[in-house]
Write a structure and sequence with these properties.
alpha/beta, Rossmann fold, single chain, 349 residues, 434 Repressor (Amino-terminal Domain), LacI family DNA-binding transcriptional regulator, elongated
Length: 349
């Protein structure tokens, strides 16, 4: 003989007295004494439905008592959108400082009632395509697409099926708005720090890798010298591998050129230059002042003396990417928003 009460057949959790099986909309309707359609209207906050406040309150009470959770995917399919924002990245979740992009995007998304879904693909195109496909199936509000360093990127075609903003990268074809560091202003800021300290013979140790950072920072260096009335001297421009050994290897050439100050492409290069200058009995900043770039704090804040540098605005890139995606800020002319790279003053100048 079967029990006529379906509720009695449902196993109950010993912890909270609630059903150990998922509670359905039908269960809520039965407990509230209303139709399933009425429950659906209340769950989806349909204010146009003709439902009295007393009935709405009974439904809300039943939802709370039974622990009912709406099927988010079903709601997304009905509404055509969700409260999720996707972020697809090639490696930023595993890099020492660029993970701040995720932090900034997550904070800004949460502020506006959205949750960030992150897929870190390690540059695997098949994994990237699968991640984008799953996000599209879940009707995300849009997708942020990010790379771990500033560069031109090939945009997966599937991204163009939804709203997309590029973060720390850009499309040469202008297929989507982009939020990127202002490399030129960063180069100007780094050089001005040395000019303001009275230096006139300032070297730049740039990277051997073609990139927006290589071109933009050199342009900013030249513009700052020009504004100060100092002629550009090709003999003070050095290319080095963008790592500690590159900075170390170029030390002799920098010293031979008579530079009293050096703007390094990044903090790792500056760390190598520190080693080279120290081996030659030169003191920082009294003999040679040094400015880095990136503000990789595990390096810059712990060198002796601590390194004055220019920060890459990773957190702000994430925040502004979400704001552009949600239409909270206007897309700039040209589709590319350049974000200032702030100086971080320490003791090497």
């Amino acid at each position: 003989m079967t029990d006529a009460n379906p509720k009695a057949r449902r196993p109950v959790s010993a912890e909270n007295g609630r059903s150990s099986h998922p509670v359905t909309m039908r269960d809520v309707a039965k407990a509230a004494g209303v139709s399933v359609a009425t429950v659906s209207h209340v769950v989806n906050d349909n204010r146009n439905a003709r439902i009295g406040e007393a009935a709405r309150e009974r439904v809300r009470k039943a939802i709370d008592e039974l622990g009912y959770r709406p099927n988010a995917l079903a709601k997304n399919l009905v509404s055509g959108s969700s409260k999720f924002i996707g972020l697809v990245a090639d490696a930023i979740a595993t890099t020492p400082f660029a993970g701040q992009i995720i932090h900034g995007a997550q904070d800004e998304a949460w502020k506006h009632g959205y949750v960030l879904l992150v897929a870190n693909t390690e540059g695997n195109r098949a994994a990237e395509d699968e991640a984008i496909g799953m996000m599209l199936e879940h009707k995300v509000r849009g997708i942020l697409y990010s790379t771990w360093y500033h560069r031109a990127a090939e945009i997966p075609r599937a991204l163009l099926e939804t709203d997309v903003v590029l973060v720390d990268c850009f499309s040469e074809a202008g297929e989507a708005p982009a939020v990127v560091p202002d490399e030129v202003e960063g180069g100007r800021s780094a050089t001005r720090l040395l000019l303001d300290a009275g230096h006139r013979r300032i070297a730049i140790v740039n990277t051997t890798t073609p990139s927006p950072a290589h071109d933009g920072r050199l342009q900013g260096y030249r513009e700052a010298l020009d504004a100060a009335g100092i002629p550009f001297d090709e003999a003070l421009v050095f290319d080095a591998r963008p790592e500690q050994e590159g900075g170390y290897d170029v030390t002799d050439a920098v010293v031979a050129a008579g530079a009293t100050a050096v703007f390094c492409h990044n903090d790792r290069v500056a760390m190598g230059l520190y080693d080279g200058l120290r081996e030659r009995g030169l003191s920082i900043p009294s003999d040679v002042a040094v400015v880095g770039f990136d503000n990789q704090e595990v390096i810059a804040a712990h060198l002796r003396p601590p390194l004055t540098t220019v920060a890459l605005p990773h957190y702000e890139l994430g925040v502004l990417g979400v704001r552009l995606l949600l239409g909270l800020d206007p897309v700039p002319d040209g589709g590319r928003l350049a974000v200032a790279c702030p100086p971080v003053i320490r003791s090497s100048v």
